[in-house]
Design brief:
This protein is mainly alpha-helical. It has a single domain (23-104), classed as Helix Hairpins. Helices cover 81% and strands 0% of the residues. The protein contains 3 helices and no strands. The longest helix has 41 residues, at 3-43.
């Protein structure tokens, strides 16, 4: 099988898998964003900072430039981190499944 054909199969399988898990993915991102906004409200951050905080924390990067000082903000940050791990794992699983599907067509 040619590499271009394998890529086409992979993209098609990826699209199919994403359509299946889209409600879960969008729900995780939405909850992560809402939790970030709640943490930002508790900490007195601007909306841009809250969105940035939510996704940087969710990706478990956590640069440390925005740190919640209140207990409620810290608890929310932990929840965002767990949601980010779930989101990352789900995206990785979709990619692996699409790759399995694409390479199984070569047999």
């Amino acid at each position: 099988m040619q590499p271009a054909e394998l890529r086409r199969y992979f993209i098609a399988a990826l699209w199919t898998e994403l359509r299946v898990v889209w409600p879960i993915l969008s729900g995780l991102v939405g909850v992560q964003l809402l939790l970030g906004i709640l943490a930002g409200y508790l900490e007195g951050w601007r909306i841009g900072e809250t969105v940035y905080f939510a996704f940087i924390t969710g990706l478990t990067i956590g640069y440390g430039d925005l740190v919640p000082e209140r207990l409620g903000g810290r608890v929310i940050a932990v929840m965002i981190g767990f949601l980010g791990i779930l989101l990352t794992a789900l995206i990785a699983a979709v990619g692996v499944r699409a790759l399995q599907e694409a390479t199984s067509r070569t047999d």
